[in-house]
């Protein structure tokens, strides 16, 4: 089908001339011949494509078999179970991720580890520390029954040995699933080592059943949903008999009910409250090593310093707090400064003089000024580290 230059056909191909009547048959014959050849080429291309597809499928199948065969040599198969269990522990998400998500996720560790292979599942199920933390948070945005379904809560508890429980209930969400799940957790409260709880009115009466049943509880964080979360109850006494409790945080907007606690055995304390509540607490907490004191009421009685003989780390939100304590072993202090640098400077100097403590580290939060910071450092010349 190569047209020879100089011929009539070549001339027609390279111009807009109309062919003569006598030339039509030859042109149509040439087109028919080319159509036939194109059909042959299409058939050959289709055959070759089919062959390529067949070869690609065969290559994929062999590649998959090779990959599976090569996996037999994987070092993962030779990792001892105890090492793999340690790797699993590092895959656990922080508890705040679970809390912010507001519901459990089967695609997250530890649940996802039970769906990889039989060996991983066996190791995950037998590693109780993988299941030692359970986070359940209810919110108005999520269905209460889906926050952490009860059957999965039971499975989680069954696989654990000790439990660090985060349970944030919600006053405006369906309370029945919340009560059911908390009752399930409470049946195993003897294994609780930590409890982080946001209390609501429906759950508060259930706390009385914990009295004398939480011998392993070492760390307690309490918060209230609102001021209505105390239906007729005068006090919470279930934590009074927690013989292992040493770490306490109470961070409500208000404390709606009296809480009986083994104050004398605590070594860490963090609370937001009026100074009067702090004062009553600190008077009995002679074994404290660390204290975070946030004062939300500016009423200050006549100073009568409380001696905390073992306190090494202290954080305060108001400079007036420093007038009410004596801390002979204090090593670190954190101050929330907001335009009251000089007030802190004066009171800190008095505290250090009164306590004769070996303080070496100072942390300044808030909005300290340059001259205020300098004044504080001059008052605390023993400081070797400023944060």
TrEMBL record:
This is F-box domain-containing protein. Keywords: Coiled coil. Residues 38-65 form a coiled coil.
């Amino acid at each position: 089908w190569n047209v020879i230059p100089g011929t009539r056909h070549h001339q027609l191909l390279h111009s807009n001339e109309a062919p003569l009547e006598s030339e039509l048959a030859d042109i149509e014959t040439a087109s028919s011949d080319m159509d036939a050849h194109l059909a042959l080429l299409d058939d050959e291309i289709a055959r070759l494509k089919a062959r390529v597809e067949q070869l690609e499928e065969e290559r994929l199948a062999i590649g998959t078999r090779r990959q599976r065969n090569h996996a037999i040599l994987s070092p993962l198969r030779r990792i001892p179970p105890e090492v793999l269990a340690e790797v699993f522990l590092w895959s656990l998400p922080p508890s705040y991720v679970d809390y912010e998500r507001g519901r459990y996720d089967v695609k997250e560790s530890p649940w996802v580890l039970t769906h990889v292979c039989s060996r991983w599942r066996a190791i995950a199920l037998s590693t109780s520390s993988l299941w030692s933390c359970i986070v359940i948070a209810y919110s108005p945005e999520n269905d209460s029954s889906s926050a952490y379904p009860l059957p999965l809560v039971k499975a989680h508890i069954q696989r654990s040995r000790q439990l660090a429980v985060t349970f944030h209930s919600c006053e405006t969400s369906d309370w029945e699933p919340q009560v059911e799940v908390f009752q399930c957790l409470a049946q195993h409260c003897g294994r609780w080592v930590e409890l982080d709880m946001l209390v609501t009115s429906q759950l508060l009466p259930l706390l009385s059943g914990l009295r004398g049943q939480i011998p392993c509880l070492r760390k307690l964080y309490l918060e209230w949903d609102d001021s209505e979360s105390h239906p007729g109850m005068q006090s919470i006494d279930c934590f009074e008999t927690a013989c292992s409790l040493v770490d306490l945080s109470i961070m409500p907007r208000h404390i709606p009910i009296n809480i009986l606690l083994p104050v004398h055995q605590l070594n860490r304390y963090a609370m937001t409250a009026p100074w009067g509540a702090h004062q009553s607490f600190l008077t009995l907490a002679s074994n404290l090593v660390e204290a975070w004191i946030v004062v939300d009421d500016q009423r200050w009685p006549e100073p009568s310093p409380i001696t905390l003989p073992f306190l090494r780390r202290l954080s305060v939100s108001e400079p007036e707090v420093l007038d009410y304590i004596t801390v002979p072993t204090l090593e670190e202090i954190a101050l929330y400064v907001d335009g009251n640098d000089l007030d802190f400077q004066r009171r800190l100097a008095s505290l250090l003089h009164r306590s004769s403590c070996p303080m070496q580290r100072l942390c300044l939060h808030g909005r300290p000024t340059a001259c205020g910071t300098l004044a504080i450092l001059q008052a605390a010349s023993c400081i070797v580290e400023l944060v």
